[in-house]
């Protein structure tokens, strides 16, 4: 930070901004908080760390820039916005919470990013490390904000980092770093896929151990020096932690050695086996015991809002996959399911091209139910499904799903999966994918009371 007598400006007072305020208060730093919302609920936690007089709501005015030399920006603030360009133009210091974390903590930091699977991989790594008796904690984009990890002396800090966080962070220093995969996402903010991919690759710049997905063509392997890898087993790809199939059963291998069968793992789908491979590659990079890690992973259950089987009534299985906010994640979810599938899809679009979804849905989905802001766009793009129904909202989509399941059940003896896997963000109706997923679960359970 620039040495200055002026208060530090915190831009954005969400989860990250509040964690920055807590950190600055504990370190006796003066600060002002800015939030573009016109109204903000002042919670007990906000009152505990921030004087209400130091919260300024509404449009950020150019005159405010002169009141500060240091600005700490939350990930929700778009880097291309007028606000940030003004701060830069006047030579002010811009940082993120991750920058501050890096200044304070550099040992045994593990950084995870990717378009899909990053939360699952992060939590698997935390689960294995704890199972091995290590003092480990995950945070960043999930759970605790990065600065709150500094409050305890964890032996291992596992940071999940979104593209929004990586975009504004100057330097990411880690012992091990990993990109799960790169597929088009958040292009409404990053504009081009190339920009998005460049931002993801920042995670490798200052990492001791780079861990590469050999099966992802968008990860620039030829530009990287790496020792650890994961992916799908192929003739020309047989080193590292790999998923392969033998006699119709999927296994995890290390190089040519078979480690564990899908039958011994609670997580569903090949995409989750790849997530486990990614986590094991990280554990290997830390020189920890892989055999013990394999035994630990057998008991890892699915995370909330990600392929979460939360209710079963006779042969009807309800699955909350609200965290699938892009096309590729939804495709992986749908392809992992067996028997009949009713898919609930919709929300706020991140793209105008949903054609990629069509083949996966055609081969795996019995009934498609569309809701949300982009339901008409989805219907225009996905035309080859046996049955498509438009719902006014998520609640109606749930009711329609149950009616459709009853009709399918008249001629089908096997299981029927009803899955919310939206392939869209939640922001048309909900403040987060978590709120959407919780609403879905609560509404479904209410129909059985």
List keywords for this structure.
449 residues; alpha/beta; Rossmann fold; UDP-N-acetylmuramoyl-L-alanine:D-glutamate ligase; Protein-Tyrosine Phosphatase, Chain A; 3 domains; six-stranded mixed sheet; 20 strands; globular
Summarize the model shown.
This protein folds into 3 domains: 88 residues, Rossmann fold, CATH 3.40.50; 198 residues, Mur-like, catalytic domain (UDP-N-acetylmuramoyl-L-alanine:D-glutamate ligase, 3-Layer(aba) Sandwich); 140 residues, Mur ligase, C-terminal domain (Protein-Tyrosine Phosphatase, Chain A), CATH 3.90.190.
Description:
The chain is of the alpha/beta class and 449 residues long. Helix content is 34%, strand content 23%. It has three domains: 8-95, Rossmann fold; 100-297, UDP-N-acetylmuramoyl-L-alanine:D-glutamate ligase (3-Layer(aba) Sandwich), CATH 3.40.1190; 308-447, Mur ligase, C-terminal domain (Protein-Tyrosine Phosphatase, Chain A, Alpha-Beta Complex), CATH 3.90.190. It is built from 16 helices and 20 strands. The strands form three sheets. Strands 7-8-6-9-10-11-12-13-14 form a nine-stranded mixed beta sheet. Strands 15-16-20-17-18-19 form a six-stranded mixed beta sheet, with helices on both faces. Strands 3-2-1-4-5 form a five-stranded parallel beta sheet. Helix 12 (327-335) runs parallel beside helix 13 and helix 15 crosses helix 16 (433-447). It is globular and about 75 Å long. The model has no long low-confidence stretch (mean pLDDT 92).
């Amino acid at each position: 930070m620039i040495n200055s007598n002026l208060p530090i400006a915190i831009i954005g007072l969400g989860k990250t901004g509040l964690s920055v305020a807590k950190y600055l208060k504990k370190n006796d730093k003066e600060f002002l908080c800015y939030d573009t919302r016109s109204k903000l609920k002042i919670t007990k936690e906000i009152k505990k760390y921030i004087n209400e007089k130091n919260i300024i709501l509404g449009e950020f005015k150019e005159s405010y820039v002169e009141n500060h030399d240091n600005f700490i920006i939350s990930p929700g603030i778009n880097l291309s916005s007028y606000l940030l360009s003004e701060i830069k133009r006047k030579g002010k210091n811009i940082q993120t919470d991750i920058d501050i974390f890096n200044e304070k903590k550099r040992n045994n930091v593990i950084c995870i990013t990717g378009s899909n699977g990053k939360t699952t991989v992060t939590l698997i790594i935390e689960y294995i490390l704890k199972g091995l008796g290590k003092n480990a904690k995950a945070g960043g984009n999930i759970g605790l904000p990065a600065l709150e990890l500094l409050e305890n002396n964890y032996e291992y800090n596992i940071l999940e980092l979104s593209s929004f966080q990586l975009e504004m962070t100057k330097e990411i220093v880690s012992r091990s770093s990993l990109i799960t995969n790169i597929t088009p996402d958040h292009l409404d903010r990053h504009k081009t896929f190339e920009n998005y991919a460049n931002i993801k690759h920042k995670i490798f710049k200052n990492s001791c151990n780079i861990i590469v997905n050999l099966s992802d063509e968008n990860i620039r392997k030829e530009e990287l020096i790496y020792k650890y890898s994961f992916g799908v087993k192929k003739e020309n790809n047989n080193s590292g932690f790999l998923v392969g199939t033998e006699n119709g059963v999927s296994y995890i291998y290390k190089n040519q050695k078979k480690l564990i069968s899908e039958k011994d793992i609670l997580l569903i789908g090949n995409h989750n086996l790849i997530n486990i491979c990614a986590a094991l590659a990280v554990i290997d990079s830390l020189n920890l015991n892989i055999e013990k890690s394999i035994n630990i992973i057998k008991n890892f259950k699915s995370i909330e809002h990600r392929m979460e089987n939360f209710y079963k009534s006779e042969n009807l299985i309800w699955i909350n996959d609200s965290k699938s906010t892009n096309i590729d994640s939804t495709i992986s979810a749908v392809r992992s399911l067996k028997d009949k599938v009713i898919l609930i899809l919709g929300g706020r679009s991140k793209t105008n091209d949903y054609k990629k979804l069509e083949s996966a849905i055609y081969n795996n989905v019995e009934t498609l139910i569309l809701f949300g802001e982009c339901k008409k766009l989805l219907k225009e793009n996905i035309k080859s499904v046996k049955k498509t129904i438009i719902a006014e909202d998520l609640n109606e989509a749930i009711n329609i799903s149950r009616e459709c399941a009853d009709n399918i059940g008249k001629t089908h003896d096997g299981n029927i999966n009803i899955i919310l896997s939206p392939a869209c963000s939640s922001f048309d109706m909900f403040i987060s994918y978590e709120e959407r997923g919780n609403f879905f679960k609560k509404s479904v359970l209410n129909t059985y009371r």
